[in-house]
Design goal:
Layout: H1 4-10, H2 17-27, E1 35-39, E2 42-44, H3 52-62, E3 67-70, E4 75-76, H4 94-117, H5 127-132
Antiparallel strand pairs: 1-2, 1-3, 3-4
Length: about 140
């Protein structure tokens, strides 16, 4: 899906290339303009964008209303954004998307590995595999 040179140039340098490859193979898509929109358990079918501007228009339309994932790594578009105007076209640029997606994945991966070293119970060791399958995500704590 992604060649070694692209991984070396774009991915989080703290992650081994084999881990990045496995991550992208598990959750990624080949099209850097891919936009996936979900609300609850439903997938909203959107017209596949032909240009970066079309993709960003789709992202801006659905961010805040649904879970929007973008690009090669299917990066969560609304992460850390408080206003739609803050969304940058980097989301749909392949190298930038790989950089952002692997940086986020790297944070989760390091947390999981650290927890494994601290004596996570045997049945919880599958957590690392669940991270690769995209079943584990970090959610911002809600203040009350």
């Amino acid at each position: 899906m992604i060649d070694a040179a692209t991984i070396h140039q774009c991915a989080d340098p703290a992650l081994k290339p084999a881990i990045v490859e496995k991550f992208v193979r598990a959750v990624g898509v080949p099209d850097p303009l891919a936009v996936t929109v979900r609300t609850g358990n439903r997938v909203i079918l959107v017209t596949p964008p032909k240009t970066a501007d079309d993709a960003m228009e789709l992202v801006r339309r659905y961010v805040g209303q649904a879970m929007v994932r973008v690009g090669v790594t299917q990066y969560p578009a609304g992460l850390g954004v408080t206003d739609v105007a803050e969304l940058k076209p980097d989301l749909v640029e392949a190298c930038a998307n790989i950089r952002m997606g692997t940086a986020l994945f790297g944070k989760v991966y390091r947390i999981v590995r650290h927890a494994g070293r601290r004596g996570v119970r045997r049945r919880d060791r599958s957590l690392e595999e669940r991270v690769f399958r995209g079943e584990v995500c970090i959610r911002r704590a809600r203040s009350r």
